[in-house]
Amino acid sequence: MAKNVYGLDLGSYEIKVYDKKSDTIWKEKNVIAIKEDREIFAVGDQAYEMYEKTPPDIQVQFPMENGVISRFNDMQYLLQNLLKKERHFARGSAYVIAVPTDVTEVEKKAFFDLVVHSTARAREVNIVERGIADAIGLNLDVENTKGLFIVNFGGATTELSIIAGGGLVLNQLLKVGGSDLDQAVAQLVRYNHDFLIGHQTAETLRRNFGVFSDDDNAVMTAAGRDLITGIPQRREISINLVRAAVKEPLEQCVQAIMALMDRTPPEIRKSIRRNGIFLTGGVANLPGLELYLEEMTGIRTHTAIDPDICAVTGLKNIIGSKDLKKLAYSMIEDNYRWMR
Ligand SMILES: Nc1ncnc2c1ncn2[C@@H]1O[C@H](COP(=O)(O)OP(=O)(O)OP(=O)(O)O)[C@@H](O)[C@H]1O
Questions:
Q1: What is the pTM of this model?
Q2: Does residue 179 have its Cβ closer than 6 Å to ligand 1?
Q3: Which class does domain 144-303 fall in?
C-alpha cells in the first residue's frame, strides 16, 4: 500500500488524527481498558464508554497525564490500534506531531519515539509546537505577526502561547483543564448534597449547563448515589452549584494569562492587545467563555470555529503546504534546537 502522511495531535482526553490519503480528520478518546493487568480489552471511544462502569479486573486508563505521555507502552499500543482501524493505514508512513512546549525534552521526545520506535516503522517523523499548529489552524500569519496570544483549553491542561516573528516567544502549560472543572463539580455536589456523581456525569453537567448564560433557576437531573443511604438515585443539581465549582479553576487560568501578559515584551504586548486572544481546545466550545475572558482580561477574545480540532487542522495545513513545512522539525537532525 502506498505511504501515507498523518498529522497527530495527542491530547490527554482525545487523540485527533489527520489522514492525508483520505483527507479526513477523526478523533477518538485517549483511553485504554486493560483486563487483569495484561490483556487489552478495548481502546478509544469504546474504552471510554466503560469508564467508571467496569468490574474490578478491568482497569480503564488514560495513557497521558497533564499533557504528557505517562504510560508509554499503553499509548503506543492504543495509537497503533486506532490507526490500523483506518483503512488507509500503511507502514512506513510519515508523521507530523503537535507537542506541548513547556515540558521537559525527555517528555517531548516521548511523542517522537512513540512512532519512531514502533511497529509502524515510520519513514519520517517531525514535530511542531502545539501553539504554532493552533495558529496555523486559525489561519493566522505566524511568519509575519508582531504578537499573537493563543490559549488552548484542553482536557487536562491549558496551554498559553505567545507567538511573534515566526516563532514562540513565551509558553506556559497549566495543569488545569476540563477534567479539573469536572472534578470540582463532582466534589462540590458531594460536599453540598452528600451525593456521589461520576466523572462523566460531572462532565455532562458542566457541558450542558450554560454556565455563563443560563439564568439562576436552571437545574438538571443527575444520576448518582446517596452517600448516607447508599441508594442510587437521581437528584436535581442547580446551575449555581456548577458555577461555584468552576469559578476557581477558571480564575486560575485568567491569572496565568494576565501574568504571562506582564512578562511579555511591551511591543509584542501592544500587538496582542490589537489582535486579541485566540481560544482553541475542547473547553473553548463552552458558550460564553469568550465573553468571560474578555471581561476578566480586558482583551478582545476570539474562538476558533472548531476549537478542539484547531491544532490538527493546523497540522493538515502544514502537511499540505511547502511554505509551512519548515515549521515542523525532526528531533534527530543535527540542527535540532536543544542540541545546539
Ligand atoms: N461542547 C463542549 N462544551 C464544553 N466542553 C467541551 C465540549 N467539547 C469538548 N469539551 C471538553 O474539552 C475537553 C477536551 O478538549 P481537548 O480535546 O482539546 O483536550 P486534549 O487535547 O485531549 O487535552 P490536553 O490538551 O489537555 O492534553 C474535555 O474536558 C471536554 O469535556
A1: 0.93
A2: yes
A3: alpha beta
